[in-house]
Task: inverse folding
């Protein structure tokens, strides 16, 4: 049995999905958290499949979210749950008025019962049920209220053997026109549902094509549509939308028995947060705090957890490494196995592990930005500025999420309606330094620029942002000219982040990290260890220069030579680290751990690089493709082979040129 | 007068929405239809977009889009 979840953005759809399926999907408070449909099994009955669809305001096929939702509806699910934000019934029920026109069993779940109860709002559920012709129920997804009752009602819906038939809220003239059209369609043997008829009246091309309406019939339909337009002195789409809202207001005026007192909290917060003069300084403070929290030892004397936890973790990894080394020595394990386990696996994977606390903290803070609704405000306040560099306010969401991970960030770009804005945002997101690159910066800052952490780490983040702006400006002037960019975005009410879903999110990130460390990074580490331990004729290499790895790497080293980090005895290590970094960025640090000349990763880095070569290496790794997963996502989301290959080539050129400039200019100056 | 010309805290009633297909439809779907009351709340830091209240919720919209919406000041 398949049950679809439909609702406006920010209506609590994902919370309901998580509650029903026990999933750990992330709930964000900005339009477009769910960009692709997601499926999960109902916790209490595994035969029930729940499908979470992207949040939509309407079933017009203009955005990819709407197309996904409408496509799902046409596949005839067994039932749908329409989740409605009860604190904003007027706009939310607009979608409901379109959903009831489909021949599919449905129930409306009025969410945020806890909030409306607190406001003292009394809603006549029966009146709504009579008006819409479908069952209603009040729930609270986050507070777990009425979940069982909801699912029991859903079960009863699907029991009925007779399919529901679509109904209308429309009255008067429009209703008559729709009946006229129905007769026309029936006489021409066109198969349709009630929603199709409305779309036909609106003369929507997609539906006209879908129903294979003949030219003769279309003429008659156009006549009817134009008659209605002339009658109202307005265009047809406006008449229909207006009629929906009027019908809803009529119903609500009777069904809301007692109006609650609307909370002023959101408005009060916004008086500061989106204030014309305070908004930008506040945004800078918020972002600085986030990075300070993760990377600084202290902010104004108050100790911050990121660096502290990283130190603890590093101690733990070293302890484990030494413990296992002595254990292996105690067992008289052979030299190569000691080398593989202690200097290969533990040094490599362990080097990455020590940065886990900082990565989790970064995700925690970014998720708070999303969950509270602040991200939508950032889009609003930054739109003016971003438009100047060829993007839109909506681009800020993917770009900020990019600090966490490029993959969901690129997918979040789907909410950008303008095609050029969307493509450009996708291409630029990988330049934003993601959390997997964080270990590289922390490592180099400690090894080469000790004492200048406060400068070098922000500098590398700003370099990423700066390059993204520069590339955006260039592409906007050359390839992605043209306008048509828009900004229309709901500012959802502020909500407190849900502790349970935040913990689940972090758990998910932790799981993902451990899985990645245990598979991709571990495998890469072992392969690289084997390649550096043996010579091409499979003897144990006496010196590193004889190894398979060094021999193979020497073919590629010349390409990197002008960048400064590939020269010298250890130069090939940087090349191997950079190349394996394209699989997963965490492995850059692991590879230096395995191959490096020092006892620890930090020592290796200190031996291997001059400050200028280190900067060049960092810049190259900052700007080059982040990982396989991102490359796959780029391909999927750019939807064009040409744009995809162009993006990869562009990133390679940008990384190479930037790194070249850093090294050549740096060498001249210093 | 258009919505784009309203000052913060001014309200107006929508008379007409101009523009091409997708954007206009989006505005209708979001509740900006003739006879709807809209209040401009404030302007973003760069003077654009503007924050408006329509049908009980808050929306950000660029002046360029707001100029397509003809209103009668109340």
Result:
């Amino acid at each position: 049995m398949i049950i679809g979840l439909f609702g406006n953005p920010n209506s609590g759809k994902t919370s309901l999905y998580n509650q029903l399926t026990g999933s750990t999907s992330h709930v964000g408070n900005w339009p477009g958290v769910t960009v692709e449909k997601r499926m999960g099994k109902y916790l209490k009955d595994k035969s029930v499949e729940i499908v979470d669809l992207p949040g939509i305001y309407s079933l017009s096929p203009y955005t990819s979210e709407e197309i996904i939702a409408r496509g799902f509806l046409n596949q005839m699910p067994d039932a749908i749950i329409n989740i409605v934000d009860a604190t904003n019934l007027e706009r939310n029920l607009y979608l409901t008025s379109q959903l009831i026109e489909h021949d599919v069993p449905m129930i409306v779940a009025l969410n945020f019962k806890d909030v409306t109860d607190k406001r003292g709002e009394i809603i006549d559920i029966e009146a709504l049920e009579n008006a819409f012709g479908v069952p209603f129920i009040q729930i609270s997804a986050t507070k777990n209220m009425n979940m069982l009752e909801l699912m029991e009602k859903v079960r009863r819906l699907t029991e009925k053997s007779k399919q529901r038939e679509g109904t209308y809220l429309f009255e008067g003239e429009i209703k008559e026109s729709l009946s006229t059209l129905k007769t026309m369609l029936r006489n021409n043997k066109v198969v349709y549902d009630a929603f199709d008829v409305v779309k036909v009246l609106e003369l929507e091309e997609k539906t006209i094509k879908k129903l294979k309406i003949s030219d003769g019939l279309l003429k008659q339909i156009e006549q009817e549509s134009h008659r209605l337009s002339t009658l109202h002195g307005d265009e047809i789409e406006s008449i229909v939308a207006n009629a929906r809202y009027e019908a809803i207001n009529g119903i609500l005026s009777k069904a809301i028995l007692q109006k609650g007192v609307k909370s002023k909290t959101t408005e009060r917060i916004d008086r500061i947060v989106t204030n014309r003069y305070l908004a930008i300084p506040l945004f800078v403070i918020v972002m600085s705090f986030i990075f300070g929290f993760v990377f600084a030892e202290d902010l104004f004397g108050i100790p911050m957890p990121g660096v502290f936890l990283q130190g603890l973790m590093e101690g733990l990894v070293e302890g484990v490494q030494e413990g296992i080394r002595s254990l292996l020595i105690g067992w008289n394990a052979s030299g190569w196995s000691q080398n593989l386990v202690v200097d290969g696996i533990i040094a490599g994977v362990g080097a990455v592990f020590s940065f886990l606390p900082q990565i989790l903290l970064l995700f925690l803070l970014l998720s708070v930005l999303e969950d509270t609704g602040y991200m939508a405000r950032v889009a609003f306040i930054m739109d003016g500025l971003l438009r100047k560099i060829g993007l839109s306010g909506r681009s800020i969401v993917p770009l900020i999420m990019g600090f966490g991970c490029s993959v969901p960030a690129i997918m979040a770009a789907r909410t950008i309606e303008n095609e050029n804005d969307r493509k450009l945002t996708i291409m630029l997101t990988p330049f934003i330094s993601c959390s997997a690159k964080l270990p590289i910066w922390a490592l180099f800052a400690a090894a080469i620029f000790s004492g200048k952490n406060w400068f070098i780490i922000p500098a590398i983040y700003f370099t990423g942002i700066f390059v993204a702006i520069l590339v955006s400006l260039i592409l906007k002037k050359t390839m992605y000219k043209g306008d048509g960019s828009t900004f229309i975005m709901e500012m959802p009410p502020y909500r407190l982040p849900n502790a349970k879903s935040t913990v689940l999110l972090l758990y998910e990130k932790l799981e993902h990290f451990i899985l990645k460390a245990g598979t991709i990074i571990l495998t890469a580490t072992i392969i690289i260890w084997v390649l550096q331990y043996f010579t091409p004729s499979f003897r144990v290499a006496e010196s590193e220069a004889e190894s398979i790895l060094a021999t193979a790497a020497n073919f590629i080293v010349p390409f990197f030579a002008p960048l400064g980090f590939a020269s010298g005895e250890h130069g090939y290590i940087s090349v191997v680290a950079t190349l394996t970094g394209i699989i997963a960025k965490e492995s850059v640090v692991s590879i230096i751990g395995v191959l490096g000349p020092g006892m620890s990763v930090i020592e290796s880095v200190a031996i291997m690089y001059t400050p200028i070569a280190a900067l060049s290496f960092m810049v190259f790794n900052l700007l080059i493709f982040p990982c396989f997963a991102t490359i796959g996502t780029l391909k999927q989301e750019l939807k064009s082979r040409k744009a995809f290959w162009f993006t990869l080539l562009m990133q390679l050129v940008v990384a190479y040129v930037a790194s070249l400039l850093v090294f050549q200019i740096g060498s001249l100056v210093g | 007068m258009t919505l784009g010309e309203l000052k913060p805290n001014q309200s107006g009633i929508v008379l007409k929405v101009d523009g091409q297909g997708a954007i206009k439809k989006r505005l209708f779907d979001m509740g900006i239809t003739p006879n709807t009351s809209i209040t401009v709340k404030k302007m973003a830091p760069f003077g654009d977009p503007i924050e408006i209240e329509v049908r009980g919720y808050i929306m950000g919209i660029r002046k360029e889009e707001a100029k397509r919406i003809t209103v009668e000041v109340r």
